Amino acid sequence: MQKLFRWASKWWPGLIPLAVMWGIAAWNNTLPLEADLSARSAAALKNTVLDKTRIAVAGRDVSFAAEAFSEEGRRDAVTAVETVPGVRLVDDLTRLVPEAKPFVWNAERDVVRVTLSGSAPLPGVKGRLVEVARKDLGGIEVADQMGLARGAPPRFENAAMLLLDQVGKLKDGKITVSDTSVSLSGMARELGGREAIAAALKNLPEGFSVATNDIKAPPYIFQAYKDPVAATVTLTGYVPDNTIHAAIATAAGRKFFGEKVVDNLKASIGAPASFGNSVVAALGALSRLSTGTLVVTDREVKLSGDALYEGAAADIRAGLGKDFPKTWQYKPEITVKPAAGPVDGTVCQQLFSELLTKGRIRFEPKRANIDPDSAGLLDHLIETALRCPNAMIEVAGHTDSDGEDSFNQALSEKRAQAVIDYLVKAGLPSDRFTAVGYGSTQPVAGNDTDEGKAQNRRIEFLVR
Amino acid sequence: MSFLLSFHWGWLVGSLLLGLAMGWISVVQRGSGTSKVLARWLAVLVAVLVAVSLARVIPGRFGYWLDLGLTMFGCYLVGCTIGACLRDWVVSRSAPAA
């Protein structure tokens, strides 16, 4: 031992090269060592769930800042870094993610994008929500403005996924989850979308409830356009079901005597109440116009176009509102077609014959009450009568051979008179018209078929 | 410690070799070494530095450099001791023959 101390007293000169080596070693190794520790600390945190993780290494000391989603997770993360071999001290700057109270999450859709905002409980959930939104919403831009917060209700992710699916059914609108209550507003993309969303909301996970559902259905639109040049009436838009579709198509066929009905209607739910009756009434008004457009939007009816003469315009403006339920709005924009030039009696007769070939004046069966479906035809007859103000006109009634002759004779007379009354009410002088009834004495077709009988039941206008 | 050894083994082996050389020389070197008083003070200084290092008082890079320096110094001392013992053994074996 004595010898060792004696030798040791002579070891000091070696300290000088040792110090030089120390300096070089420190110079060369500090940065690689720090990089190595930093990489291994990050690797140790790979399986932990953290936000805003920041690792700074000085020498062998690690400064570790992060936001954790639970106290346990936070402690585990710190321990993971502490146990990295080579780490000397860990400066623990971790904290818990702030708790959101209430926990609010929003999905908002406008024309160009879907914006997700509010809070998500975990980075993984946040990522999945954005991914599902991108995938399910058909390529629309998804803006992620979500932050992270603790305090999400249980089964939040399931609820949010279900609601994201509903965002796809919206044209625009906003869905908000506040703790466990769900609020929805906006407009559905398609008819029936509102109902589909309401049905889907029944599948919300246990604990969640719908606070407000202000999703509006898109307007229920029915349109009809009467084009006198192409001689067509085009029906577009929606009808509630096939029965009403058939009723509307039949009514259109009866009302538009000279035009071909082009039926482009689609069946869809969401129609307002009394839709069928109101549309049929509105089509009756459209049939009295020379050219016109009918637009039924939910409970609003817009009718625009040219009436054939002033009296008809006033009648359409005033009369149609009565046919709609009280809650409906009626907006007529009726102008009067410029009066056609006067013609002589021969031309008038020709025009009457043409009109009465295309369509027939209809009456209630076995009675002399004019069917409202004939209003369009009568307007055309009145317009024609106005063009030859000096012609005297005989209105002749005919019936088929069914029933007794005396009844048919009386019925034909009454029907002819009913037509004259209609014309007079429209403003034509009564002394221009004479009513004549021929009963079944002048058939134009055989009375042995229904078709023939229908042809024989007729009103004729004869210029004298 | 094992991390320091594995990460800096080259430098530590260098320190050890330096110590071996220094120990080898010290056995036969003439002249006086450090005085006892100075040696004690140095021992105290080293003890304090070791204590500081173990207590992890100095933070960051300086703490790391201190650990590295002390480890290299330790290796140097070990090298010195082995070198001196080896040389002493060689000298004592050859002396009777001479």
UniProtKB/TrEMBL annotation, chain B:
Keywords carried by this UniProt record: Membrane, Transmembrane, Transmembrane helix
Annotated TM spans: 6-25, 37-58, 64-86
Full protein name: Uncharacterized protein
